[in-house]
Amino acid sequence: MCAAFAAALALALPFQANASNNEDQTGVTTSDTAAPTSPPVAEKREHSYTRHGITISDPYDWLYDKSYPTVDDEDVLDYLKAENAWFETKMAPHKELTEALFTEMRARIKEDDSTVPQRRGDYLYWSEFEEGAQYRKHWRRPVAGGDDQLILDETALAEGLEYFRLGAVSVSKNGRYLAYSTDTNGSERFTARIKDLQTGELLADEIPETLSGLTWLKGDTILAYSKVDDNWRVNNVRLHTIGTPTSEDVEIFTEDDISFRVGAGLSAQEDYLVISTGDNETSEVRFVSADDPTGEQVLVKPRVKGVEYNIDIRDGELFVLTNDDHINFRLAKASIDTPGNWETVIAGRDEFYLTDFELFKDFLVTEGRLNGLDQVQIRSYDAPTSAAPIAFPEASYNAGLSNNPEYDQAKLRLSYESMITPDTVFDYDVASRSLEQLKQQEIPSGYDANLYTTERIEIQARDGTMVPVSIVMRKDRDQMNGGEAGPLHLYAYGAYGYAVPPGFSTTRLSLIDRGFAYAIAHIRGGDDLGRRWYLQGKLNERANTFNDFVDVGRGLIAQGYTAEGKVTASGGSAGGELMGAIINQDPAQYGAVVAHVPFVDVLNTMLNEELPLTPGEWQEWGNPIESKQAFAYILSYSPYDQVTAQEYPPLLVTAGLNDPRVTYWEPAKWVAKLREYKTDDNVLLLKTNMGAGHGGKSGRWNSLYETAEEFAFILWQMGMAESE
Known about the structure:
eight-stranded mixed sheet, single chain, four-stranded antiparallel sheet, protease, S9 family peptidase, serine protease
């Protein structure tokens, strides 16, 4: 349900359907031919339930394998394989276009690329891709001089694996040990290992089932981590002592509320372990000495529903970011002896959304958004209300603090990009207030920013709210489209307070250079315009998110950016829910829609408290188990439940068999129901990555190829495929 990122595909022998629609007992239509000639038709099996006096029929419930997370029901697997075979069959004529898109996308990526080295302790650290490699290598060298040292080789770790993802990476303070975690099937259950960087030896210590950062404590002898339970919930902080069996690990914190998630990390001066727990609207924090992590923990302030806060500690003072007295948060401080007595340092303001802060030896940094644009502000401890904002060169951009691991730091590492400016790395000299560009993303095949233009406009939604939209396109787009309204791709997320930044994308150019405009709708549900913007798109105001997206598209049509039927759209996870809702509401607007791992079976998922994420999601969507009103409201927009007999636009849907966030059966059930109800002949495809999780295939080229497939589908449906 939340946004997330990476995974892989393993197609078994295809199980397919033919035109005669002969059904067998596997739950799908079968064929004796080797290649499917029609899409699979899922069997309907009687299933219903009643809640709050309302009875819901759900004949595709059988696609939910009740042994999940093990998926071994042959009927379910056969259906998914049949859909994969249909996907392959329909995309086969456009293989040449997909390959061409992949080739041009890959040509924009510098293959032998590396990050800018950054100092931590006695070493400079960086990572790099070698030419042709799918995964990174991680390096360091002594600040005082010496040879480069390869500390972690993802390519070697991924060898022979269908899927590989590196999770947490943490070097001990003394520089001797490297702790890291890996996921090899996309289930987001990581295994942590420890490497001795002096000897190159991989220690015997192995910690399975982790889902957290890895934090070094007590003179680099203890590793703090969190273990994930059977329901994919992180409710603990545990300590592992190097060289001891994991059975002897000590659990120092346990969260009893099943809706809360736990995390831990070090304070600015690395003298305290800070333990945080919370859900989407409430939090609670405690801290303990990093040198005595089994010692007494100090609770900062008990949880109060609706109050969020996080802390950092400097020289015996707590700094607290909280929304307790203003929706856009304030920064407060307190003595370490009376941590719950908060005194305002920076007051909350309607016009400025304070999103984060970071403490350094001689100054602090606040981050936020003013009128929806990123702000990075340097402040002194003596006069914290006086801010020195860093000036950036464009009117619309995405900027923020990057990797700044040292507490005593005179220069700040920043990241910067815009819709037309590639990813740029700066160092900001705090004393001189000057920016030094260290690196800008290289595009080997060539890129001329002067060919493109970007705009930020506002479009009025149906309730009168003005919704910001960021747009990028070619300056010669009108000529490219022969003077007619050209196609436009519209993207949004709209959930969890996540703001989609107006950033740069090399893959996006493959649409823009073919005459598309590309627009990001900053709809409610994200926090682009402040915390209230987020709250206006959740719970009982969730429909605002869907309405904003539809109305932005209609507004862009009205203003001549495109025409009806020439809007294409995409979104993933909660953004995939958005795709399901908008095609139920206004299908005629869209020429093609792509829904990645879409959260579309909202009601059933929120009713199933045994699923991994459900209890923690009630604060976002509502609890239909306890509330009849929440049940009725979710039912009114849940894309799966609202599928009706009407024409739908061409649709490509993806899923991951091992996805713990949006379980595979949500998109599978949705596609099955769409096939039953839709009255058109438009293409409907479902691709399930059988060895993957929430983010698709792993490896930079495998992932890029899936983007090429997505764009080939869009171009095909818009009549712009070279093969036509």
